Amino acid sequence: MPEGLSASEVGKEIAEHREHAEHAGRDEHPAPGHAGRDRLISIIEALLLSVVALMAAWSGYSAAKWSTESSLSLSNASSARSDASADQIEATQIRTLDSVSFNAVEGAYVANNVKLFNLTVKRLRAGYRPAFNAWLATHPLKNPNAPADPSDMPQYVIPQQKQAAVLTAQANALFTAGESAAGTADKYVRLTVLLAAVLFLVGIGSRFPARSARYGLIAVAAGLLVVSVVQLLGLPGPPS
Fold it and tell me: What is the 3-state secondary structure of 63-85?
C-alpha cells in the first residue's frame, strides 16, 4: 500500500478515544448540561473517526490499485516501444536491401547487359516488385515528373515499418495511461494526508480540558472531512 494513513492507525485512535472518554466519564463530574454536550461531542468524534477509518481504507485500496495499473501500463508501454524499435530496425534493413537491389538493376541497365538486367530484376524482393513495376509504368527515362526510384511509389510498402508505427502509437497511449494512473494514485495518497489531519485534530481535541478548544478543533476536523469527501467523490474508482 502506498504511504499514507492506514485503517489500523485510525482503529488505534478510535480505541484510544473510547478509553479516554470512558476515563473522563469516571473521573469528572460535570454539570448536567455540560455532561450532555460532552456526550454529544464524544459521539461526533467517534463518528468522525469511523468515517475516517472507512475513507482511509478505501483510499489506500484505490491508491494501491491505481499504482499497480500505472506499473502495468508503463511496463506494457516499454515492451511495445522495444518491439517497435525492433520492427523499425528490420524495416531499415529491408529498405537498404531494396536500395542495393535497385542499384544493381540500374547498373545492369546502364551497362546494357540484358542478361544481368533480367537476373537482377528476378532477384528483387517480392514485396518490392509491385512498386518497381509501377515505377516502370511511369516511363522514368522519358517522364521528367516520374519518381526518382520505386521507393517513392505508393505501392512501396514495408510491413515492418507500418507495424513499428502502430506499436509506437500503442506505446505512447500506454505511457500516457500509466502517467494518468500514477497521478490518480498520488491524489488518493494526498487524500490520506487530509484524513490524517482529521485524525490528529479529533485525537488531540479529546484531550483538551477547555471545551471551547475541543469544540473548535472538532469543527475544523469536520470541515476537513467534508473537503476530503468532496475530493474523494471527484476521483475515479479503482480499476477492475
Answer: HHHHHHHHHHHHHHHHHHHHHHH
Residues 156 and 128 sit within 8 Å (Cβ to Cβ): yes
**SS3 category, 27:** helix
Contact, 2 vs 183, CB < 8 A?
Answer: no
User: If we measure between CA atoms, which residue out of 220, 230, 214 comes closest to residue 197?
Assistant: 220
Q: pLDDT, tens digit, for every residue of 41-72?
A: 888 888 888 889 899 999 999 999 999 999 99
User: Do the beta carbons of residue 13 and residue 202 sit within 8 Å?
Assistant: yes
Q: The C-alpha cell of 196 is what?
A: 490524517
Tell me the H-state helices in 111-233: 114-122, 129-136, 159-205, 211-233
Give which of 60, 24, 45, 57 is closest to 200, Cα–Cα. 45
Could you give the CA distance from residue 5 to residue 60 in angstroms, rounded to a whole number? 8
User: How far does Cα 172 stand from its chain's mean position?
Assistant: 11
Whole-Å CA distances, 142 to 106, 138, 153: 15, 9, 17
C-alpha 224/C-alpha 218 separation (Å) is 10
Residue whose grid cell is 530484376: 121
Q: pTM for this structure?
A: 0.72
Residue 205 burial (CB < 10 Å; 0-12/13-18/19+)? Answer: buried
